[in-house]
Specification:
The complex is a heterodimer. Chain A is mostly helical. Chain A has two domains: 5-68; 81-127, no CATH class. Chain A is built from three helices and two strands, in the order αααββ. A two-stranded antiparallel sheet of chain A has the order 1-2. In chain A, a hairpin with a 5-residue loop joins strand 1 (98-102) and strand 2 (108-112). Chain B has helices spanning 2-44, 53-56, 97-108, 112-120, 134-143, 165-168, 180-184, 186-189, 206-222, 259-262, 278-287, 322-327, 331-341, 344-353, 378-385, 394-405, 432-448, 518-521, 523-536, 544-556, 568-576, and strands at residues 70-71, 77-89, 126-132, 148-157, 170-171, 177-179, 200-201, 227-234, 239-246, 296-299, 303-305, 308-310, 318-321, 409-410, 427-428, 462-472, 476-490, 497-504. Chain B has a domain at 210-576: DD-peptidase/beta-lactamase superfamily (Beta-lactamase, 3-Layer(aba) Sandwich), CATH 3.40.710. Chain B is elongated. Classes of the chains: A mainly alpha, B alpha+beta. At the A-B interface, helix 1 and helix 2 of A face helix 1, strand 2, helix 9 and helix 19 of B.
Amino acid sequence: MPRYGWLLVVLIVASAFGVYQLKHAVWRARVELRQTEAAIAKETWDVRRLEADLAFLTRPTRLADLAGRVGMRPATVERVVEARQIGRRRALELARTVVPVELVSGGRVELRFKPPVTFVLDAGEGR
Amino acid sequence: MVLFASRDAGTRSLRRARLRLRVLMAVFVLAFFSVGLRLVDLTTGARATKPQVLSLRRGDGAPDIGRADILDRRGVTLATNLRVNSVIADPSRVNFPERAAHRLADALGLNEAALLARLKRGGRFAWIKRRISPREEALVKDLGLPGVALQPDEERVYPQKNLVSHVLGFTGDDNQGLAGIELAEQDRLVGGEAKGKGPLVLSIDVAVQNVVREATMKAFLRFHAKGACAIVFDTRTRAFLSLVSLPDFDPNRATREPSTNRQNRCSGHTYELGSLFKIFTTAFALDAGAASLFDRLDASQPLYIGRHPIHDDHAKFRWLTVPEAFAFSSNIGMVRLIQKVDDPERQKGFLRRLGLFGTSKVELPDTRPPLLPRRWPFITQATVAYGHGIAVSPVNYVEAVASLIDDGRFRPGTVLRRGLEDVPPGEPVVAAKTVRDMRWLLWLTTDRGTGDQARLDRYLTGGKTGTADKAVYGRGYVKGAVVASFVSVLPVDDPRYLVLVTLDEPQGDAATHGFRYGGWTAAPVAAEIIERVGPLLGLEPSPPEARARMEARLQVYPAMNGHSHETEEGLAAVRLDP
């Protein structure tokens, strides 16, 4: 037996163990891969089903029918208003109002009203 | 000496052999060492936590979908494949076929005798029922019959039901396209998503389609029409935003619907469209320079070509200007116009350039070619001038009209989504001045002519009415049967959309005073569509100046009885206007 024979034996045994480990890891990975792929496939089909459900439930024919039942009407060009027709003039006038206030300390400040964020639709006001 | 010499040689050989062995050993040690290192790296290193084997596979683990989805232009699902189960059997393993057939027929609602025959036929495979419901699946599982199993399958589902039926078409049992875009784009759809092409996106907009279908359905039912077609066409991209054919069908159960419902009346039927063709005649005469808007045409009495009399439905019994002849839909006026050219080849060439001599190239498989006259004597030129003797599909017609009111160039339409950058350059048909004149004439017709029922206050629209006697193959013109139509342009000063409504054999009612004219039956439908679709498409109401500009042209053109401004100053002003 050559002088380095023992080293060869150790390496061969280590290699065999390594190959076994690797093979086992690959097998585990394959199983995991198959499970993951199956889960992805199931999720994909579920997502497709949910998308189809969504498209079915939100189809315009159905929404128009439901909207009609709660008294809504189709939007037509007659219901389109220009920005200047939106009734925010009163809110803006209030925002421009300055209210002088005398403080206890004797100082004087001017209070202003913050304009509301939401506007009230009043088509007639802006005309 | 010889002995010493041979001993020396032997020692040298031994040394050389040992050296070789050591080198070989070193190589092996190095090789095993590197293999060992690699093994340690693979099993315990960072790569071990991220298996490399995954990258050898397709990648995302997504299932193979047998057929790509179809979406509308906003991404709404129009057609999709869902996973379902089918029931199959291995007849050789079914122990008691009679009992199995009885139980399966009961659970799945099948014919017991036919099922028994299938199970007794032998072999290793038989379909019991394709694409069963979850409830049926549970029943089959409960039965637990040996030799009967569930097999994963796919089902094509159309969530919008009837809404887009004629464009989509439908598929057969094996997921193959049988009609509509499902058939036309079969190669693209099969394995499309698996090949990474993604879903097929159409130009159809379901919100627009719903409005169009609703408005058309009302008229279809009210006027007891045999059929109807309504189209909304984007004049810039030349794409169909809506294409409704009535009666329609539910593609989820297409094979159980009457075959007449499956016929696409927008692409698969041809109609003589009557006065709608006057758009082409007028544009032809104006573009050829044979007539101008100032010309007057004798419509004071019926016109005879040989023994054939030509009448006007809205007769004025006087000379008409060209705008009057167009807006009052004068047949006599159109014949007078075509007389000014009197060249059948030029007339044919013009219609050919508008795509009216060939089948539309729209991606629908059942598109019908036009029915053309075999010969073109003057009587044919005359009848074609007011839309008789030539039958085209509504799809063909819309493509042609878009060319005359957009930029004067013909481009084929599409039902697939495309942006402005994908629009082909097209072939020139008419000059820009003809386009401007045609827009004005269409506005005039809606504002003061036969199309006034489609006049809207907030959108500046133009349009043309059409009422044609209906010709039926083998019977000629059927007495009392008409095809009533209306084509509308929105907004007419800068067209974005075309709306065409065609009613097949409508019956007038009390509200229309019994009239079946396109102006009474189809024009109000087009008006309703425009009123509701305009805001959906983001179209702002037309500014008052746009109407004023149209009306200003009235001041200089001699037009319209009761509204005419036939002054010499006016005419002079027009002549000076470039």
